[in-house]
Amino acid sequence: MTVVIARGSEGTAYVSKPSPTARERIVAGAADMISRRGLNATSIREMAKHARAPLGSTYHYFPDGKQQLATEAVRHTGAWVARSLRKELAAGPVAGLLAFLDLWRGIVVDTDFRAGCPVLAVSIEEPPTDETPAALLAAAEVFEEWEGLLAASLREHGAAPEQAAQLATLVVAAVEGTVAMCRAKRSTEPLDRTAEQLRGLIVGAIGD
Fold it and tell me: What letter does residue 208 receive in the DSSP assignment?
């Protein structure tokens, strides 16, 4: 099965489904744009242009505008990463960790360090109102899902429940922060260092 990569005017990044629909292309393009520029600096018009979609079609699929599209972009990224984690964690938490790291390594390298994680990008920006935006709530759910998958694998391979939960949070937090460092340094060395330390912690937790 051929995997189609979402393409925007600035390059290539997030994986979508084979032969994606117009809506899926817009969502994937928005995820890519947010991963590069952040949410507040990106308009829905720019997201539509980046996805090579008419603005009218974008509003047709996302009548509530930018925040609705951003929410879907966050969920799109979360589901994509979760699918990869589930597959790789079948071989154990170390395999899952290395796949998680390699996934983000591919993003930063393939985009010449221009793109990071749209879930993190949405999380760190100031909300436009006093209310918690839907995109931020979606980001929290995505992080919880990734942590939950990692923690479950750690428990299945012998880690104590509390230790598994703590280590899963550490993995997600460390990798997300390391991706930002890679973009700043224009180097994958931070990922290499993080991988080595996290692998050691996981091996120690499961007793392999």
Answer: -
